[in-house]
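Q: Please design a sequence for this.
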């Protein structure tokens, strides 16, 4: 019985941490949109993605590219890096 309690406790802690991380990422994204750094998803263009990548927001650029073009992380990273070289 103690083993199950330990496993359930670990699972509960994991779920709470996952939920907090998810909310934090969502809040961060909304804050960047409000500040004008990150365009809303529906208004994002490839030019915006290139601007994000060149201004130090490469992770957000890759995330937006994946959201827009439904590609793998590897492909999105390659495309964003090629945009930076242009």
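A: Design:
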């Amino acid at each position: 019985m103690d083993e199950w309690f330990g496993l359930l406790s670990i699972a509960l802690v994991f779920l709470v941490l996952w939920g907090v991380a998810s909310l934090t990422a969502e809040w961060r994204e909304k804050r960047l949109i409000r500040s004008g750094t990150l365009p809303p998803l529906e208004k994002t263009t490839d030019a915006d993605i290139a601007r994000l990548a060149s201004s130090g927001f490469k992770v957000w650029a890759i995330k937006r590219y994946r959201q827009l073009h439904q590609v793998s992380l590897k492909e999105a990273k390659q495309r964003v890096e090629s945009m930076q070289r242009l």
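Q: Thanks. Anything notable?
A: DSSP finds four helices and no strands in the chain. The radius of gyration is 18 Å.
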